[in-house]
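Reopening this ticket.

The earlier resolution said the output was attached, but the attachment link was broken on my side. Pasting everything inline this time so it's all in one place.
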Amino acid sequence: MRYILDHESSEFLNSINDTCNDRIKTLKSGSVVWRAQTGCDKEKASDSAEQEFHVDKRIPYSFKRMKPLSNSPSEGRANLKGNPCLYVAADAETAVHEVRPWPGLPVTIAKLHLTKDMKLIDFSETADAEQYPYFYIDEPSIEQKIDAVWAAMDIAFSWPITESDSKSEYAPTQIISEFIKSKGYDGIIYKSSLTKGHNYVLFNLNDAAVVQCDLFVVSKVKYDFERLDESSSLTAERGNT
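Inline output:
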């Protein structure tokens, strides 16, 4: 662990290890996972007529480009700076949603195969996570408390990352990921907040190999939204224009 934890935090992490038996999932070697990145490469035109008009052919990113560098300085929900993880999805649609592209944008989608049998902790196993936070009339049982905590952790991992996020907000999920990795697990599973699919974080970049890259273009994006509350509205005073 790279963080210094107090006793209460250490006890919380140990409780994760104590209650995860029903949330361990094994993915077999050769299983398919997906990763998407916005953008593409360009191949110089070989035809003389195309060269005259400077027409470059768009092609998918290379296999190497579709995985982070081993010394990548970026950090995320599950990894510290300089210690990258491989963020992939259970299906191509989820992978595309996670990069949040806009219409007309090219997207490279990589198909990867797992290189070994992998043991992951599945945070999405809490059936009622969508109903979190929970409210109980009576004192909840131990099982209900455990489910509530696991649901909260699933939401923490799945919450969309934006460029404006403070890196300090990553600390809780980074600590949990480091702890799970220290216990010998290969990664974690959590729900996507952008679609109905699931995401995987693989702690070792070599645990999945890129076998195919294809280029797509985003044709349509749909947004759902809801008003926070009535006090969030502004209206012009009567008589003013």
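Reporter confirms the inline version is readable. The beta strands are 24-27, 32-38, 41-43, 57-59, 86-89, 106-114, 118-122, 187-191, 198-202, 208-217. The CA atoms of residues 77 and 170 lie 5 Å apart.
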